[in-house]
Every structure is written in C-alpha cells, then in structure tokens.
Amino acid sequence: MRILGIDPGYAIVGLGVIDYIPHKFNVVYYGAIFTEAKTPFDTRLGEIYTDMINVIEKTKPDIISIEKLFFNTNQKTGIDVAQARGVIVLAGQQKGIPIHEYTPLQVKQSVVGYGRAEKHQVMEMTKQILHLKSMPKPDDTADALALAICHAHTQSSQLNYLNKLNLINKR
C-alpha cells in the first residue's frame, strides 16, 4: 500500500509518501509545497492545488492520510488552513484516492504509543521507524511522514482485528 501523508497548511504543505507492507516501511518521497506570503491568497490556493495534483500523479498513492484540523487561538489562521486543506482534499478526491483523516492525538498514539507525546518524540520515532539518517526539514514534512505511518499502523490494526473476527466466526 502506498500512502501519501499530508500536513496541510497554506504557507507550507508537508508531504511524505511511503510504501507499507505489514511491518515494513519504505520511504518513496518527501518534501513540501511552499507558497509566498505576499502572493494573493486565492493564487496560493491554486498553487497548492496544482502542486498536489502533480505530487499525486508523480507518486501514485493508494491512500491519502491527512491531519484533521483543530482550532487553537487564531481562528483566521485556522480558516485559511481549512481552505488550503479543502483544495488538497479536492485534488485527492478528483484523482479518486480514498482520504483518511487523523487527529494529532491519533498520530502521536500511533507513532509513539502515547497520545500526549511531545513533537520531538514523534519526530524521533518517525526517524527510527523509517530508518532515516536525519529528520526531514521542514517539520511539516516530518509531520506528513508521521501521518503516513499512522495510517499504516491503523490499517494494520483494523486488518488484524477483521482477520480475528473471521477466524472466530469460522469456528
């Protein structure tokens, strides 16, 4: 399964693509989409959309794993991120790729084993799980890789659960 992890934003969109075969990860690609602060916002959204389509066509993911939004103190920033996230989701939907959403708590739980883990702990575990020599920069890219790992772990857990149910039902 090829998973495209996405950390949405409008200045930086983190991207990480991994191939996952149960208990084995292979990093395919990671990077980021950057938009310039002085560019009109609608133009920035268009750039994000176009670049997402290009990444999807280049990497051919089976699944998109994207962070669910939550609003902190700055609602204006949250609304802008939500708009950027919308064009990202639209790009995936138009390419027919299933989209799975995860909260930061779910990502931390899946990658570190503790939902209240610190950012540096998630980054270090991401580096270890993927056997990277150093953590990709910017941090948004590392977050995207963690989102891809989260989906792989979540799907593995669900498949194991379903397999157990089938075994139980066959008895």
Walk me through what this model shows.
The mean pLDDT is 90. 35% of the residues are buried. The protein contains five helices and five strands. Strands 3-2-1-4-5 form a five-stranded mixed sheet. With 171 residues, the chain is an alpha/beta fold. The protein has helices at residues 41-59, 75-94, 104-112, 119-129, 139-170; strands at residues 2-7, 12-21, 24-34, 63-67, 99-102.
Secondary structure elements and their pairing?
Elements lengths: L1 E6 L4 E10 L2 E11 L6 H19 L3 E5 L7 H20 L4 E4 L1 H9 L6 H11 L9 H32 L1
Parallel strand pairs: 1-4, 4-5
Antiparallel strand pairs: 1-2, 2-3
Helix pairs in contact: 1-2, 3-4, 3-5, 4-5
Low-confidence stretches: none
Distance between the termini: 30 Å
Largest sheet: 5 strands, mixed
What is the global morphology?
A: globular
What is the helix fraction of residues, given as a range?
40-55%
As an assembly, this protein is single chain
Write the H/E string, N to C.
EEEHEHEHHH
Structural class: alpha/beta
How would you concisely characterize the structure shown here?
The protein has 171 residues and is of the alpha/beta class. It has 5 helices and 5 strands; from the N terminus they run E-E-E-H-E-H-E-H-H-H.
Task: Give short descriptive properties of this protein.
alpha/beta, 171 residues, 53% helix, 5 helices, five-stranded mixed β-sheet
